[in-house]
Amino acid sequence: MSQIHTLTMPKWGLSMTEGRVDTWLKQEGDEINKGDEVLDVETDKISSSVEAPFSGVLRRQVAKPDETLPVGALLAVVVEGEAEEAEIDAVVQRFQAEFVAEGGTDQAQGPAPQKGEVGGRLLRWFELGEGGTPLVLVHGFGGDLNNWLFNHPALAAERRVIALDLPGHGESAKALQRGDLDELSETVLALLDHLDIAKAHLAGHSMGGAVSLNVARLAPQRVASLSLIASAGLGAAINGQYLQGFVAAANRNALKPQMVQLFAEPALVTRQLLEDMLKFKRLEGVDDALRQLASAIADGDRQRHDLRGVLGQHPALVVWGGKDAIIPASHAEGLEAEVLVLPEAGHMVQMEAAEQVNQQLLAFLRKH
Description:
Blueprint: E1 3-8, E2 18-24, E3 31-32, E4 37-42, E5 47-51, E6 56-61, E7 68-70, E8 74-80, H1 85-98, E9 114-118, E10 121-128, E11 135-138, H2 152-155, E12 161-164, H3 181-194, E13 200-205, H4 207-218, E14 223-229, H5 240-248, H6 252-259, H7 271-281, H8 286-297, E15 298-299, E16 302-303, E17 316-321, E18 338-342, H9 349-352, H10 354-367
Parallel strand pairs: 11-12, 11-13, 13-14, 14-17, 17-18
Antiparallel strand pairs: 1-8, 2-4, 2-7, 3-6, 4-5, 6-8, 9-10, 10-12, 15-16
Helix pairs in contact: 3-4, 5-6
């Protein structure tokens, strides 16, 4: 039996409506295995590769390099088994005749982030999925809930998943009182109270990992498990120059050399990513918040918090990129946890190796 598969423009994150085809990584006639990267696509937020969700032979490249196409548009045809050219023509023609791009209205975009007064300050969070023990996603220093845009929908297929903007970040209130780890952790607990969640799984990236560990230290009964991704708080070393350089950067030329350190693949730092980050850094109160937090996290190249002792009280998964230039992957050694090191990824491993990270997280959460 032959199967004709259509590969379409993926939707990465809520705001994505279209993507520009950059380069084809596979050519017509190439054998493709499930999970292979088939082409590179650039959006206004990020560049990434489109992976094949099926195996077969790439029979037809429909999208051309430099072409900008809406989410869901036909990119390619992949065939398992045999198929005549005429059959492929018919599939393409039918697809194009029936395809309707997503509406431009906000209603068509589906669920949207919420904002509310939580623990005495404005907080933004975003919920997807339902059921199960909820999972809370906690971003890192200088990030926001969009740091999880490649993870949130996949994880929400199996449970309720909530990503938040920590104080000082995203669209949450910028002013911090003490600007320390406890203040951020208390905000996560306040959000759990606000949403009537007695117990949650926590997944934290970088500084968000230290926040998650600290929540487990402050309120162990509220935490079902810990998933720690390139986490702070598990060793002494940190790239202090990155932190200081990121805080000080006031224009694109100063920011770019800092941002490229976050990824193993520097091309992922798009012009738009830099513009968005500069826009955030220029908001009132952000500079003060980042300076407070940077000094709370690290003293030069040394982290101020050692939270390794928290591990062992909860099921824990630790994920690291082997090429992490911010916090060394060697911190994953000797922990009371399941450990996955992805050798080719950098500090933003949940973006660079989203498929593998999502599979590992889903498998871990199913057990706990």
